[in-house]
Design brief:
Blueprint (H helix, E strand, L loop, with lengths): L8 E3 L2 H13 L1 H4 L9 E3 L1 H12 L10 H13 L5 H10 L8 H4 L4 H4 L6 H12 L1
Antiparallel strand pairs: 1-2
Helix pairs in contact: 3-8, 4-5
Length: 133
């Protein structure tokens, strides 16, 4: 859990991505030459953890660190030639570095304009875990 786990970020499941793309293609006059921001949920790491623990009926062992350390460790790996460091940098951006992944607040969502629902995280995680068992 990074920096307390309460930094909101956007998450979108693949079904929602596919539906959003289809709706954009069906509405070219609305979406042409636009940046389109959609999501399934605005969540925090702690909310995801709680949903996973509830769905699995297990208590997860967690470790804690800071977003800044995550970002810096990724940057160092990239400087050393390890391209896998970009994954830590991306995770750092998602979990709060620079506010890049909280676009519902700083860019605005298109969910309503495209007729996309906001989904329920706990319900989604419960169904996903049940399917994988």
């Amino acid at each position: 859990i990074f920096t307390g786990g309460d930094i909101p970020y956007e998450a979108t499941n693949l079904d929602q991505v596919g539906t959003a793309i289809a709706k954009c293609l069906k509405n070219p006059d609305l979406t042409r030459n636009q940046y389109i921001y959609v999501n399934s949920f605005t969540v925090t790491q702690n909310e995801v953890l709680k949903a996973l623990e509830s769905a699995t009926h297990e208590k997860f062992a967690i470790s804690e660190d800071t977003v800044e350390h995550l970002w810096q460790s990724g940057t160092e790996k990239v400087k050393e030639g390890d391209r896998m460091g970009t994954l830590a940098m991306i995770a750092g951006a998602i979990y709060g570095k620079g506010g890049l992944a909280h676009f519902s607040k700083n860019k605005g969502l298109w969910n309503e304009r495209l007729g996309l629902p906001q989904e329920d995280l706990s319900e989604f995680v419960r169904k996903y875990v049940a399917e994988k068992k």
